[in-house]
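Write out this protein's structure.
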Amino acid sequence: MRQLSLFLLVTLFCSATALSAQSAQFTLSEKEMFRISGDSNVRAWQAEITKAEGTLIFNSTASGALHEIESLSLSIPAESILSDSNVLNGTMHNSLRSEEYPQILFSLTEVHSAEPDGDAFLIEAAGFVHAAGARYPVTMSVRAYLSESEIRFRGSQILLMSYFNIDPPTAMMGMFRADDEVEILFDLLFTATQP
C-alpha cells in the first residue's frame, strides 16, 4: 500500500511535467512561511528564515515516469535567521556558532509513506538536521500539495536546542532565558527545473 500510494502521488504530480530520461529536479522557489518560534520566561519569540536553498530530485524509469524521491536537501545560512531584536539575533547566531558552522542543513533519508489526505498527500519521512556542528535524526509528517510542475510542502517540526548541544540562549544578564524547545514552521514551494 505504501509503494502504491507513493506511485500514485508521483504519477499524478508528474503527468503534466516534462521529464528527463533519468531524473527530474525541483528547486525551492518560494518561502510562503519559514520561521522558528519559541518561548521564554519573558515572552514568546519568533525569527524568520530569510534565505534558504533546496533541491528535490525524483528518479525516473526508462519511460520517463517518476517512481521515487532520490533526494531532498535544504540549506539555510545560520545568519539569515532574523528576529525583530538585534540582541536576540546576536544571541541566536552565537548559539548556532554561525562563524564556525555557517549553514544549517536538512537531508532526507527515507520516505516511509505517502497517503492521500483530502486535497493533499500526507508524507511520513525521516532525515537529518545538521546545526552547530551536530547532527540529529528527525521524523516528520508533511502535507504535500501538487500542481502541474510544482510541489508545496506545509508542516511544522518540534526540535530541542539541546539536540545540537546548544544551551538555550540567555540575555540581559540572565533575566531573559529561552526555552529549549523550538518549532520550525514551513510552507515551501518547489518548482520543476529544466535538466
